[in-house]
Structure formats: structure tokens, C-alpha cells
Amino acid sequence: MVTKLRALMSAVENGSFKAAAESLGCTQSAVSHMISSLEEELGFRLLRRGRSAVRLTDEGERLLGAARSLLSAEEQLRQTAASIRGLDQGTVRIGAFTSVAVHWLPPVLKEFQRDYPNVEFKLLNGDYHDVNEWLSDGSVDIGFVALPCELKCETIALMEDRLLAILPKDSRYASYPRFPLTECEREPFISLLQSSDHDARRALEAAGVKPNVRFYTKDDYAIIAMVEQGLGMSIMPELLLKGRHDELLTLPLVPEAKRTIGIAYAVGSHPGPATQRFCDYVVRYVMAQGAQ
Asked: Considering only CA atoms, which of 51, 72, 50, 57 is closest in space to residue 5?
């Protein structure tokens, strides 16, 4: 059944039998046969087949959480068995938001793959809301989150990251050493969607400030481009802006505001050896960065 469930999850995640077959390294007919066999075994339809896409039936939706839990347990078993044999294998599924995906994961993955070349990775990149959803439904083993986390998760705090005001280069605030948060009520403000904008919203609410929001977007880099064009200002984490040479003015905030970045995994889950070892590599990398 595990193999059939893996075929089902691949079809759901990739949206079609063809894409699932490419992901699994088998034929499209094999994927279709495995899912049909699973439906026959369970006694109900799991997928609605369209000409170019598939989607879950209501019964399939109800089964989804249990299927993910079973596949996760199977992966943990595989990793543990490999570790006992002295091998390091398995798949580590990671959910991350933009700044971590861009600035932390590439060097950590490079170091980890050098030491453990047989471990594979599945990386999902989104905003805070996306990562929380992936942790909740079991799509990822670990997720990078902003603490405190609203989910029931075990967490490891990694780093405090300053929030900065970003403004056009020719802003009238260019001579200011710091940006007063109260000015967000006067300046056109570009905001992430409410489901994603935890950092700026917490800072503004703590200061009792209601920003003059003119634009909403889900993409961090879209905000940067809009600020460069003089459409407004925003607030962003320092890590996201690391190494960039945009036409931006960045200023510390008054009052100061920070976010705490952490790693989380669902309460009651038991990450496999490869996943646990990867977390160790992340912690070591972040600590080394902080010591520089």
C-alpha cells in the first residue's frame, strides 16, 4: 500500500499522472494502475480525472492526512534503518520562506551533501502561512518559522533578525539615522498579504501605528521593486536584504523591532536521523554566521 500511496501523493502534488510518472521514474500507465488498485482496495474513488489534471475527491481529501502520516513514518523507518547499517540515506522535506531559502539553505545544503551525498531533499518555498500549512498537513518534515509559532510544534530558536525600513534612494528620510515607525502613517506603505505580514504587523501594532497601506502583494521581491520605483516604503527583515545592491535606502526602526527565526516540527512527530542531522548542520551554520 505504501508504494500506491506514494503514487497518489505524487499525482496530487504534481497535478497529473504524467508529471507524477516523471517524478517517480516510472510510466504514466504504472501510476494510473497503482492508484486504480488503491481505490479498489479501499473501496472508493480517490481522484477525479480530467483531461490534463487530477484532483482529490471528497473521500480522497479525508484520507490525505493519514496518507501523509503513513508515508512520513515509512520515511523515518527507512532513515533509521539506513543509519543502523552505517549508511545515511532518505529524503528530508523542508519548508522555508524566502530569506532562509536564499541565504541559509544553499550553503547548508552544500556542506551537508558533501558529507552525506545519498540524502535527497525536497524543498518547498513560500511565505509564513505556506510553511505553517505544510507543517500542519505533513507536507514537510521541518519548517523554518517566525517565533513564537502559532502551531503546536517543537521549535529551535536560531537567530534574532532586525527589521528595517526600506525607502527609495531619494527619500526625504535619507538624512535620518533611524526611521520613526510613526511615519508609516504618512508615507505610502507597501504591505505583504495579511496572512504573511507577521513581522511588520507586529512591529506596527506594538508601536500603536496604523500604516498608510496603498499596495498589497505576496512577493518580497515585488515589494523591493515597487519601493525602487518610488511607489512607497515598507518594512523588511535584514536577512532578506543581505547582499543586495538595490536602489534602496535602508534604515533601522524606532522603536527597534526584530523577528526570531526558528526551525519547527510537529508535536508528536519523530524526525528521522537524516532530518535530525540536517537540523544540527543548520544550527551550526547560523551560530557560525553570528560569530562573524
From this structure: 72
